[in-house]
User: What shape does this take?
Amino acid sequence: MESVDVVIVGAGISGIGAAYYLQREHPGRSFAILESRGATGGTWDLFRYPGIRSDSDLHTFGYEFKPWRDEHAIATADKILAYLRETVDENGIEDKIRFHHRVLGAAWNSADARWIVDVEHDGVRFELSANWLFCAGGYYRYDEGFTPEFAGRERFGGQIIHPQHWPEDLDYTGKKVVVIGSGATAVTLVPSMAATAGHVTMLQRSPTYVMPVPAKDGFANTARKLLGDDRGYALARRKNIAKQRGVYTFCQKYPTAARWLIRRINASKLPAGYPVDEHFSPRYNPWDQRLCAVPDADLFEAISNGSASVVTDRISSFTETGVALESGRELDADIIVTATGLNVQLFGGITLSVDGEPVDFAQTVAYKGIMLSGVPNFAFAFGYTNSSWTLKVGLLCEHFCRLLRYMDEHGYDSVRPEFDDPGMPTKPLLDFGAGYVQRVIDEIPRQGVRGPWQMTMNYTVDADVLRNGPVEDSSLKFGALSRIPAAL
Assistant: This one.
């Protein structure tokens, strides 16, 4: 059986980052990246729908170690993919990637301090041994998006498409399109399709907060010209981290003022007399769910020029020619796009067992947002939901490497977090109200309300704890097959 020190699951933005930090900080460690698909890039290679782009600026969504050099801060998928693949090439990571390798499960054996990883490749199953398992596969199912049950779906005579499975040959020129949804995918699709479609209607059950942002960051571009790529990027990154935190804190502390400000901005981008409250004023407070960013107000521009419109209503049923709404109104459509969300699937859907006992993820508690209680030598990458995903992932990778160094220095082979405060209340790991989270709330790990068991969403706090704080902790139980330190 082949053996490596670390198995990284997933070759997307998190897995590539994990590989970079691991080989930089621990060049003597062997590792393999197992990728179920046939390409690097994860989300940015999978999704092919029109206009796909980031909803965070690339100065924070990009890696700290690799400057973002493009003038667009909100970038399209092709640019992000090129950036990721350039990172792979520059650092010799591709040799470590094994494509079409799907991890099905893993079994921990304390006697050997090893994971036996169950892998499928081209229909053939085999086992791989590893001291550590690092899951970097994101939080949703790659093979299946979420689509609710729509009455009368089978009657519709046109095409029904989910953005996660976009047909490469779809021609929507001059056609009537209804996009069901109001999240990040919908607000990206609508203005992009509206440029050539006959008309695009965004049909939403309820509004989402939408904020126009500049596609280009003038400060960042000027800083790069004056200070060079590295220093300019670092300065822009610090500025945008502070800005993201400031916006989030303002929305949480002063929700009424934030709601008023967002509405005023929206109204300024829409035609006079437009029913802003009907279509762009959610029932919840700002940042109770993620804000949707629209670069250069492209969604509002499409609405203003008449190529797109928004309808807020509930679907009664699909018809032969479109969608019937509960209000009695009907929307004609040649194409219906169900931008209705994702299916959450943590850790790539793998199953785990520890010394023969299956791991029930719903009974585990996250430690420092990187490990799970009771599960030895298992790490995962989960980014911010209120800021750029990669900001947190970078800190987690740094902490993982610090933990490995500590174990090397003290001769440890294994480490397991133990949730040692049974009186501490817990709450879901993903603690916000989005529908795709609520559907799996009873299946995912939990978090505590203080200390290392709290899943913080604050970069400043996390940087202090994960980058500068001590590795050793009373909640961590270290083990060794041999207590002779590696240095001796």
In short: The domain at 2-142+343-479 is CATH 3.50.50.60 (FAD/NAD(P)-binding domain). The first strand starts at residue 2 and ends at 9. The chain has two domains: 2-142+343-479, 147-340.
